[in-house]
Amino acid sequence: MLGFVMAKRIFLAFGVLLLVGIVGIAALAYRPAIATVPVPAFAPALVAEGEILAAGGYCATCHTVRGGAPFAGGRAMKTGFGTLYSTNITPDPETGIGGWSQAAFARALREGISRDGSQLFPALPFDHFTKLSDDDVAALYAYMMSRPAVKAPAKPNDLPFPLNIRALQAGWKLLFFKAGRFTADPAHNAQWNRGAYLTDALGHCGACHTPRNALGAEQPGKPYAGASIDGWIAPALTAANQAPIAWTTPELTAYLTTGVSLYHGTAAGPMSAVVHDGLAKLPPADQQAVTLYIESLGQGDSRAGAAAPVLAKALAVQPGKDADGRLFTAACGSCHHAGAAPNPLRPLIALNSAVTLDEPTNLIRLILYGIGAKQGAPGVVMPGLGGLSDADVARLAAVIRRTHSALPPWNDLAKKVAAVRADGPGES
Ligand code: HEC
Ligand code: HEC
Ligand code: HEC
């Protein structure tokens, strides 16, 4: 009997707690809707400024499906939890952001709250955009509101219960999100601070290059430490960067603004759009600021100054004459052969981070899917070899690691090839 009473009490206590929890979350999540307004015309100079900022934040990349109308949304974004679709941010009153006031637009970008008051998922990088200045939000607003309106209803997200409950994002934000503008670091000059703003706030580079915790939030103690994203590895941009040759200013500038470099290969995969939709379109002064800031992240790099011997070794690589070496020569050697002077259109594989990263993911992706004409250097393509068996792709990756680096072999290669193949080529 006593046990029954106790159980009942505990049950009641649970019920009360649950209710408090639901009421609490609802209270925490509640934000008022912001009324629509007639949107004014904007000064062309402000719209032009907004266009550059929209490139710097590559809004179009996430908000456009391949071949679709710009900014009309619908692009699938796979997360560890399910698939989310970006929304229409053209000024269509029914399906886009037509009639949104600047306050509503600013709240969406900086706090992740839609105009109607509902919580947005952090797939929109509001944890970075929260740092945007008032002037930049105003310019972005002017640009977005002067785009042609496109009627395109949002695609329903494919998220499992309870992750599909938008209100729960309020709990996520409570734990991981701090709203607030960018503040300049007085220990650095104006150019560095400009670079930090463009990288951390607008460019949200950490969204891919900073590792995330189990709930999908960037780990505050590990900025730019490298992370797994969209089926790729986004390498560390700190002194822990694993490219064989240390980055120099000209190399970094070339990589970030053209996507092609002499010693570090191509910006492929998701990094391709970051360069071509984004950094390539920034004014030179801003490009220099980003380069300076990224370079500063790599301070204390132990590889600095040791480029010559590494390059000499890369030029002298021998793939070997055994069966695996012959497979490499047949599959890759016609385009990538050591011995010749470095040519950015035929990157030296031994200098590429795809070979030196702890995980073979990027190399497997490159072998299976190649690099399309739009992704890499203009005028060249690297064909994908998806027709090879998992075992042969694994053999290729193994022989490249063995002959093009002095690092320990990768484990479970055939399994990893199967996983990358199952994941598909991705959208970029
Ligand atoms: C990494 C991908 C990504 C980038 C980059 C991105 N967005 Fe988004 N954005 C999204 C997703 C996904 C959503 C929808 C989130 C949701 O449904 O909860 C969204 C939602 C929005 C919304 C809210 C729309 C609504 O109806 O609630 C606005 C406004 C917006 N984005 C503007 C921008 C602007 C401006 C930029 C560039 C400065 C930008 N976004 C860059 C992914 C992105
Ligand atoms: C959408 C995800 C994503 C975003 C956002 C992103 N990167 Fe990357 N980045 C990657 C991936 C993936 C690679 C590896 C590409 C490859 O090997 O071809 C990469 C590679 C790089 C490299 C070369 C690293 C190496 O050692 O080979 C640099 C430098 C870099 N990114 C800088 C940046 C900067 C600066 C920004 C912001 C302006 C940025 N990235 C934003 C995904 C991203
Ligand atoms: C038909 C010529 C061709 C063949 C064959 C070829 N590649 Fe490439 N590869 C290229 C070109 C061109 C690039 C530069 C990419 C670009 O800008 O399009 C490249 C780039 C690369 C990169 C650098 C990618 C980056 O993200 O920096 C790696 C690594 C690579 N190839 C590995 C291989 C391997 C391994 C094979 C064999 C399985 C191979 N390639 C076969 C032409 C080729």
The topology string of helices and strands comes to HHHEEHHHHHHEEHHHHHHHHH
Number of helices: 18
Radius of gyration: 24 Å
Extract low-pLDDT stretches: none
Silhouette: globular
Heterogens: heme C
Number of strands: 4
Order of neighbouring strands in the sheet with most strands: 1-2
Account of the 3D structure:
- This protein is mainly alpha-helical.
- The protein has 3 domains: 44-176; 197-297; 307-423, Cytochrome c-like domain (Cytochrome Bc1 Complex, Chain D, domain 2).
- Helices cover 44% and strands 3% of the residues.
- The protein is built from 18 helices and 4 strands.
- The strands form 2 sheets. Strands 1-2 form a two-stranded antiparallel sheet. A two-stranded antiparallel sheet has the order 3-4.
- The longest helix has 28 residues, at 2-29.
- It is globular.
- The mean pLDDT is 93.
- Bound molecules: heme C (3 copies).
- One heme C (HEC) binds at residues 54, 57-59, 61-63, 77, 84, 86-87, 89, 97, 105, 108-109, 114, 120-121, 123-125, 140, 144.
Question: What topology does this entry show?
Answer:
Layout (H helix, E strand, L loop, with lengths): L1 H28 L14 H13 L2 H5 L12 E4 L2 E4 L16 H10 L14 H4 L4 H12 L23 H8 L13 H13 L3 H4 L17 E3 L2 E3 L14 H10 L11 H9 L5 H14 L9 H9 L7 H11 L19 H4 L4 H9 L20 H15 L8 H11 L5
Antiparallel strand pairs: 1-2, 3-4
Bound molecules: heme C (HEC) (3 copies).
The site of one heme C has 26 residues, from α14, α16 and α17.
